[in-house]
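Closing statement on the pyridoxal-5'-phosphate sub-project.
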Amino acid sequence: MDIGEFREFGKAAVDYIADYFETIRNRPVLPEIKPGYMEDLIPAEAPLEGESWKEVLEDLDRVIMPGITHWQSPNFHAFYPTACSFPGIVGEMLSAGFGCMGLSWIASPAYTELEVLTMNWLGKLIGLPEEFLNCSQGPGGGVIQGSASEVTFIALLAAKEKKVTDLKAQGTSLTEAEIKGKLIAYSSDQSNSSVEKAGLLGSMPMRLLPTDESGVLRATVLANAIKEDREKGLIPCYVVANLGTTPTCAFDSLEELGPICQKEELWLHVDAAYAGTAFVCPEYRYLNNGVEYADSFNFNPHKWMLVNFDCSAMWVKNAKYLVEAFNVERIYLKDQHKGMAPEYRHWQISLGRRFRALKLWFVLRIYGVEGIQKHVRHQIALAKYFEELVSGDDRFEVCSSSMGLICFKLKGDDTLSEKLLENVGKRKMIFCIAGHHNHKFCIRFAVCSRLTERKDVIFAWNEFKEAADEIFEVKNQTPKIIDEVSEKKMNEMRISTRSETMCQEKTK
Ligand SMILES: Cc1ncc(COP(=O)(O)O)c(C=O)c1O
């Protein structure tokens, strides 16, 4: 492919993405295909001779689109948001275009320098204490990792390093292997699966402690667990506090857990993967009170902050423990800039580094702080509106409401809500997933897409209401919210579902 063809191909691809966004609202959010659908659509062997880019691009509609789950659709309400914004997309494109590998400062100085500066911007934006920032005088700093899962694991390895160093300095009679064999970590039973995984990968048992009725890990529960383990001869080492749990977006209190970690000399890591973005708005920062007790803090701009995946922001108070845990030098990695700029390869697992800071920089500059605040407040307001709609129907109950996530259920037996979700799922007009609240089944409704508007919330609510009417066999007893725009949207979607199915049948 020569430069001229690249220009054409690239421009056509941007047009394709723009068309996709223009039509996304009318696409059924979930695909209609069955596992293995693609085998019939592409040959079993790679082509011997190169094909034209036009042929390849045309195949997106035939092969790929039928199997896409439309995460950016305004009807996608599952999991948590996965950010996708135009500045973020262009940032990704340009970074691919530079094609550098940022394994050291000299490998591409702009990579490191922009990451240092944007992580300072971002840390200030969410109100992190100065000591976490690269621009502070101390050993703290921020780095962009690939995912919150990676960060929880990396922080665990740093905590392990610190504990071994500290115990040796205190003159322990235990060997390093003996210390490592006794280490234990804590989080709550509401924490993300990645927290338990970090314990497995890092060979440190992770105790998932019970939470209160709001999904919050209380200080006494943590303190008792630590005491119990010390009595067994174990060495408590690492605590993961959740600010915005995956099931219900519950917030642990850092002011409660922090002093225990400080007294017991445990590394406190904060997982704010989704909800950390809300701290861009001053009115939500109180939920981060006590962050000064943390040793490491993480949130994902690639979830709620409009920066395309992957971009997971991590700050540590003392980068020394990361560097000591991960520093492996080789002659080919030596450069003369030691100490002048962070060598981020020592802060992460892989050697190579992507230019993630570019898309972060684009998003911060093009949206501005106000644009991001507006996005967060808008999505929270939409979730509140959905909550109002649920509360207004006495067959339903709201289980929890936090940020852009509402958990709700049908009153009565769990099987009713399970059936409700199943029926809504079969219609494929919106996508929601199940959760648990206080050991009871609930449905999670998350405002995910930046395109979601009030009419989409009404549309989603009508889907639930109609499915509930079917369950109670009292069709139309509760009047549907009539909103002209959402009615029109419903009809358009039905037409487009029909034509998409016809299209797929033709391809078969
Ligand atoms: C609270 C929390 N922590 C961690 C994760 C994992 O995030 P990642 O996919 O970046 O590893 C999630 C994912 O939704 C989450 O909700």
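The pocket of pyridoxal-5'-phosphate is lined by residues 80, 147-149, 192, 194, 242, 244-246, 271, 273-274, 300, 312 (CB under 6 Å). With this model delivered, the sub-project is considered complete and its resources will be redirected to Aim 3.
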